[in-house]
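INFO  loader      accepted 1 record
INFO  loader      residues=141
INFO  predictor   begin
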Amino acid sequence: MDFFTAFKITGSGLAAQRKKMDVITGNIANASTTSTPEGGPYKRKVISFAADPLKTGFDRQLKDAVNAVKVGQVAEATDDFKKVFDPSHPDADADGFVTMPNVNLMLEMTELITASRAYEANATAFDAIKNMALKAIDIGK
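INFO  predictor   done
INFO  writer      dumping tokens
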């Protein structure tokens, strides 16, 4: 595998994890949003990743083994909303209950830490590939 392919793979991982962190921070920021322009409470977003085959010079046996990552889709979670009794809230229904977003802050923080660690791992791999490329250049001198 050439260095550019390795750079593409780690770069795609960096971009995908950054997008995941963006989605998670949006969820955290809207954890208490009970009224959206679409109507109703904020709906938690979830991100999925998909393989992105690279067009490389590998033979037929290995062509499916080398993939980058791409964002598959960002969809709304199907979890149920929470009902909280707060008759003084402006979005309370006739019974005094407020429909709260389906965002679990503990889960979001765990996902954020996981995405951050994956981003760091990709950055470390990118740096290692860069150092290998520089060493290869030094060998040629």
